[in-house]
């Protein structure tokens, strides 16, 4: 099967002008994301097989920018032709990736046109050529901010209001800065370019190679958005108490908990992701008991002082670094995830010692996976209560909601580079 695929690829690429291979890969990749609904980072592996690292990175950059600017690019395409180009025809896909190169990545026009036309493969080459010529003649520009896909803009306006939906569009227009979490308070003189965001947390401008940053090998820090660092912060110091870190891989929160003195049991169902967790622990010199298990069936031997459930979710809150999610996730998947989270929350609650703490978190901007999930849990478990988060427990610029839960939104810290969208609830188990 793989042989047949690579034979077809070889045939398709014979006679291609130089530079076409990463664009062909970009076309395969955007098809995998938009038509098959595959996550970009997973589909990238197959779609870019055989490419040199620089070409692979270019193919992924083309697709990321195409996904960010797709609604705006489609408006431009449709303004230039009376011919109806269906959403899923190849000519539209070729135009989308070509215009993303031209308008978002600033690639030279001659290279964009020369490498786009062979991709149309028997489709309307003249139309594609005419639209790309028009883009140059009329000096097309993208708007200041990328538009969210229409169903997302509508859903988020309904849930959070127009200001949040607009802030999300602004945040979506470029990849986010790089946040680092430190095991110990960093020395500011070693990080003069960085912005301090809270205890043991620095923000750096994007575009730097993480492995080349000071101290990577020594392992005193790891990459983690400030919002993603909040759940573990809200459990405080461990003082050798036991915490179950459920859905733990690749281990951002595991490392925080271990460095805060917790005795950590990290559980995740994915062997591959646990491999990354183990690499992270080795690099940072932190330790945890690591278990591969599906928490729908796995059982701990004994209850724990605290349980952190970083539940699987639609990940719509991390749309800045994963621009595919807003094109892939639909209401049916939100409902499906909410159902799984309810099951996992019910199981996690059984494993908390009397009077202990359960921390529930998701990186989703959907109420069904956050506020509604926890209010349903508390409505059915009258013996449980919220353990409200105080404003003084959070970094500046982030405030708890009226129930003492934490909801990070794209409007927060917007001037400083923004935040991922998370929901975090700290709950107290009955004292027995
Ligand atoms: C949001 S990610 C976790 C991120 C992680 N806590 C961190 O801070 O790096 C969700 C994780 O849930 C895991 N997962 C999904 N369903 C699971 C299940 N039924 N049992 C255990 N782990 C599961 C996935 O493999 C994934 O690693």
Order of helices and strands: HHHHHHHHHEEEEHEHEHEEHHEHEEE
Number of strands: 12
CATH class of the largest domain: Alpha Beta
Mean pLDDT: 94
CATH superfamily of the largest domain: Vaccinia Virus protein VP39
User: How many separate structural domains?
Assistant: 2
Strand content: 5-15%
Radius of gyration: 23 Å
Ligand inventory: S-adenosylmethionine
CATH architecture title of the largest domain: 3-Layer(aba) Sandwich
List keywords for this structure.
432 residues, binds S-adenosylmethionine, 12 strands, 8-stranded mixed beta sheet
Map the helices and strands.
Layout (H helix, E strand, L loop, with lengths): L1 H12 L6 H15 L5 H8 L5 H27 L10 H15 L4 H8 L8 H13 L12 H11 L1 H11 L5 E5 L12 E4 L2 E4 L16 E3 L2 H8 L8 E5 L5 H8 L3 E6 L2 H14 L4 E4 L11 E7 L14 H4 L2 H20 L1 E11 L8 H10 L4 E2 L19 E2 L15 E6 L4
Parallel strand pairs: 5-6, 5-8, 6-7, 8-9
Antiparallel strand pairs: 1-3, 1-4, 2-3, 9-12, 10-12, 11-12
Helix pairs in contact: 2-3, 2-4, 2-5, 4-5, 5-6, 5-7, 8-9, 10-11
The structure holds S-adenosylmethionine.
Please give a structural write-up:
The chain has helices at 2-13, 20-34, 40-47, 53-79, 90-104, 109-116, 125-137, 150-160, 162-172, 226-233, 252-259, 271-284, 325-328, 331-350, 371-380, and strands spanning 178-182, 195-198, 201-204, 221-223, 242-246, 263-268, 289-292, 304-310, 352-362, 385-386, 406-407, 423-428. The chain is an alpha/beta fold and 432 residues long. The chain folds into two domains: 2-137, NusB-like (N-utilizing Substance Protein B Homolog, Chain A, Orthogonal Bundle); 225-428, Vaccinia Virus protein VP39 (Rossmann fold, 3-Layer(aba) Sandwich). Strands 5, 6, 7, 8, 9, 10, 11 and 12 form an eight-stranded mixed beta sheet that branches. A four-stranded antiparallel beta sheet has the order 2-3-1-4, with helices on one face. Strand 5 (242-246), helix 11 and strand 6 (263-268) form a beta-alpha-beta unit. Helix 4 crosses helix 5 (90-104) and helix 8 (150-160) packs across helix 9 (162-172). The longest helix is centred in the first third of the chain and has 27 residues, at 53-79. The protein is elongated. The model has no long low-confidence stretch (mean pLDDT 94). S-adenosylmethionine is lined by residues 247-253, 268-270, 273, 294-296, 310, 312, 363.
């Amino acid at each position: 099967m793989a042989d047949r695929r690579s034979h077809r690829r070889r045939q398709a690429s014979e006679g291609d002008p130089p530079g076409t291979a990463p664009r062909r890969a970009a076309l395969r990749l955007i098809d995998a994301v938009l038509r098959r609904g595959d996550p970009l980072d997973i589909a990238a592996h197959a779609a870019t097989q055989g490419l040199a690292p620089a070409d692979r990175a270019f193919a992924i950059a083309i697709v990321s920018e195409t996904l960010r600017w797709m609604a705006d690019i489609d408006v431009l395409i449709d303004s230039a032709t009376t011919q109806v180009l269906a959403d899923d025809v190849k000519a539209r896909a070729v135009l989308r990736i070509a215009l993303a190169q031209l308008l978002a990545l600033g690639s030279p026009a001659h290279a964009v046109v020369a490498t786009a036309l062979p991709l149309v493969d028997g489709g309307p080459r003249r139309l594609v050529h005419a639209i790309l010529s028009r883009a140059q003649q009329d000096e097309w520009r993208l708007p200041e901010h990328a538009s969210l896909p229409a169903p997302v803009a509508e859903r988020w306006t309904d849930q959070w209001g127009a200001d949040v939906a607009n802030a999300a569009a602004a945040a979506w227009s470029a990849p986010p800065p790089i946040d680092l979490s430190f095991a110990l308070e960093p020395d500011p003189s070693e990080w003069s370019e960085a912005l301090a965001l809270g205890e043991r947390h620095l923000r750096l401008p994007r575009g730097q190679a993480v492995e080349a940053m000071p101290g990577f090998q020594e392992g005193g820090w790891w990459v983690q958005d400030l919002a993603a660092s909040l759940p573990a912060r809200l459990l405080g110091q461990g003082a050798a108490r036991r915490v179950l870190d459920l859905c733990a891989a690749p281990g951002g929160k595991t490392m925080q908990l271990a460095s805060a003195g917790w005795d950590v049991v990290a559980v995740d169902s994915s062997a591959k992701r646990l491999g990354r967790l183990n690499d992270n622990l080795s690099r940072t010199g932190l330790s945890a008991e690591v278990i591969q298990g599906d928490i729908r069936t796995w059982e701990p031997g004994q209850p724990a002082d605290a349980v952190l459930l970083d539940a699987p979710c639609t990940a719509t809150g991390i749309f800045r670094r994963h621009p595919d999610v807003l094109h892939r996730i639909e209401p049916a998947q939100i409902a499906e995830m909410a159902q799984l989270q309810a099951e996992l929350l019910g199981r996690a609650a059984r494993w908390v010692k009397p009077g202990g703490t359960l921390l529930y978190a998701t990186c989703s901007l959907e109420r069904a996976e956050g506020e509604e999930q926890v209010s349903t849990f508390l409505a059915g478990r009258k013996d449980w209560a919220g353990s409200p988060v105080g404003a003084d427990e959070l970094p500046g610029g982030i405030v708890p909601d009226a129930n003492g839960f934490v909801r990070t939104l794209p409007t927060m810290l917007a001037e400083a580079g923004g935040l991922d969208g998370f929901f975090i609830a700290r709950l107290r188990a009955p004292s027995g």
